[in-house]
Amino acid sequence: MDGLAARIGDVLLDPDEAAGLTVHGRVTSAVLVPLYVQDGHLHAVFTRRREDLRRHPGEVSFPGGREDEEDADLKVTALREAQEEIGLPPEAVRLLGALQPTPTIATNYAVYPFVGLIEPGHVWVPSDREVAEILELKLADLRAGHGRRRLIRRGVPFRTDVYVVDDHLIWGATARILHDLLERLPADLPTPHPAAA
Fold this sequence. Notes:
Elements lengths: L1 H9 L4 H5 L7 E12 L2 E9 L10 E2 L2 E3 L7 H13 L7 E5 L3 E2 L5 E9 L13 E8 H6 L1 E8 L2 E10 L2 E3 L1 H13 L13
Parallel strand pairs: 1-7
Antiparallel strand pairs: 1-2, 1-4, 2-3, 2-8, 5-7, 6-7, 9-10, 10-11
């Protein structure tokens, strides 16, 4: 896996430099983009948020949340939130780099994404308060599911980039983060079987 980690890390932003970039948003937050290899395919881990949440109800997103005062930096925020939301211990994540930070339009968050490599087969522990479901989706399926769609948000129709896999719709800041990741990673990125890596 070291070769794969190096190849992914080579196309990502330096985490500390990315954390220093300025992006519009009143609330600073961070997300973790967990990746793993299974059966020769790269997968990403997402959450589907509970329908009764005040912010982004029912939406598919990466695990993450707002920066706490106790967090040493935004990398710590992303790892802490991933542990709280999906039960992923920080020591189980090999941080590879970062993606371009992006704002959320409606909720005024500045979102800083960090990419980490994990082992497949993790036993998830979803947060009862926030997470309705944990999704593990192949990057190849996400690429194939890219398109533009007309959505309605707070009564206002708009066209936007989306990713659709089965009945899962990814849009908004999560789609922008995913687009950045897929643009950086070669579609034919060799993904050796874990036992051979």
